[in-house]
Design goal:
By secondary structure, the protein is mainly beta. Helices cover about 10% and strands about 35% of the residues. It contains 1 helix and 4 strands, in the order βαβββ.
Length: about 90
């Protein structure tokens, strides 16, 4: 998905992503501590995320996984409902 089509949330650069249907034990534990119901998640879950701005996109670097996420309300610890984005 191109970055310009990120209309469901904010662009994030996450250190890793996992399918919400197949999270590992440590991520499941983190989500539980945050009060997130793992069974209700869709899309990917981003871990250790920071925002990416579209202004001066060429100047932005995301050496990890750029994603568009619908729920970024956990201060970058996790981001929910993520879809991989191509920012190149």
């Amino acid at each position: 998905t191109p970055a310009s089509q990120c209309n469901t949330g904010n662009l994030q650069c996450c250190n890793s992503t996992q399918e919400s249907s197949n999270t590992n034990a440590s991520l499941t534990s983190i989500l539980g501590l945050l009060g997130v119901v793992v069974g209700a998640l869709t899309g990917q879950v981003g871990v250790s995320c920071s925002p990416v701005t579209l202004i001066g996109l060429a100047g932005n670097s995301c050496s990890a996984q750029p994603v568009c996420c619908s729920n970024n309300s956990f201060n970058g610890v996790v981001a929910l409902g993520c879809t991989p984005i191509n920012i190149n």
